[in-house]
Design a protein that fits this description.
The protein contains one helix and six strands; from the N terminus they run αββββββ. The protein is an alpha+beta fold and 81 residues long. The chain has a three-stranded antiparallel β-sheet, covered by helices on one side. The longest helix is centred in the first third of the chain and has 12 residues. It starts with a helix and ends in a 12-residue tail after the last strand.
Length: 81
């Protein structure tokens, strides 16, 4: 994912009204759920996420595989929220 694309996608998802949860999938396979508009802070391509039930996660666009709507995620053990 390019830096410009990542920033555009974040702005779009964070600007939805009402807010709907989404997830950031990393190249490592890790899935980071963003369940509240205030759970994520970004400055250009750097992002900090307070994911449900975990410590803060910091990442940049180079580590992002793709971003998905949380409703489309098939969690192996049920929802994380």
């Amino acid at each position: 994912m390019t830096e410009e694309n990542f920033v555009d996608v974040l702005k779009h998802l964070l600007g939805r009204s009402p807010f709907r949860a989404f997830a950031i999938k990393l190249f490592t396979g890790e899935l980071i759920e963003v369940d509240h508009v205030n759970a994520i802070q970004h400055y250009e391509s750097l992002v900090g996420v307070n994911a449900p039930g975990s410590i803060p996660v910091f990442l940049d666009f180079n580590s992002v595989s793709h971003v998905v709507d949380a409703a489309s995620i098939d969690y192996p053990y049920g929802s994380t929220s």
